[in-house]
Amino acid sequence: MNKKLSSTCVILFALCSFNTAHAIDAKYRTKLEQSGCTQMSEMMGCDINKTKAENAKAGFGSEVYPMHHHTFTGQWVAKNANTGQTVATIRVDDKENVWVNGKKVAAKRSDGGLMFKQGFIQYRLEGNTMHGNAGYWYDSDAQTTGPIKLE
After folding, report:
1. From the CB of residue 76, how many other CB atoms can be counted at a distance below 10 Å?
2. Radius of gyration of the chain, Cα coordinates, nearest whole angstrom
3. What is the value of pTM for the model shown?
4. Which tens digits make up the pLDDT trace of 45-60?
5. Is the Cα torsion angle 58, 59, 64, 66 positive or negative in sign?
6. Are 37 and 53 in contact (CB under 8 A)?
């Protein structure tokens, strides 16, 4: 009797554990799938009420569109949010090579943005019109942040 009870408890526990994989609402999951968004990209601006193609044009999802849909090319300026002082001048060429204050840095795309780091400062450029050709930076050492604007 004790073995049957123990086996039943194990089976019930397994079924309860398995069911937690379906924690998000089915309608919400369908919208995520149809839009090409993830929960993380939705927090960054991916619209679950748009199609995959519309979100990809805005820089979200895995579909590839020509560069003119989200270009980072140009001169950008990072400013301190409190003082308005220039933190960095950023240049991006048409092949997404990036220079911060004249020094070339490695950059990578992430959820429609262009990310790179120099020292303790992390930068993210939003090169699409949805974000107004802007970005932000964060200094993990000084705990400061601010906007980046395309000049």
Report:
1. 25
2. 22
3. 0.54
4. 788 898 888 877 777 6
5. positive
6. no
The token duo for 90 is 């950023």
pLDDT < 70 stretches in the chain: 1-23, 40, 43-44, 60-70, 127-133
Take residue 57 and report the two structure tokens written for it: 């044009």
Percent of the chain with pLDDT over 70: 70
Report how far apart, in Å, the C-alpha atoms of 79 and of each of 91, 128, 144, 145, 148 are: 15, 20, 11, 8, 6
Coil, strand or helix at 37: coil
Beta bridge partners of 110: 113
Instruction: Please state, in angstroms and rounded to a whole number, the distance separating the CA atoms of residues 33 and 51.
Output: 9
What spatial distance separates the first Cα and last Cα of the chain, rounded to whole Å? Answer: 77
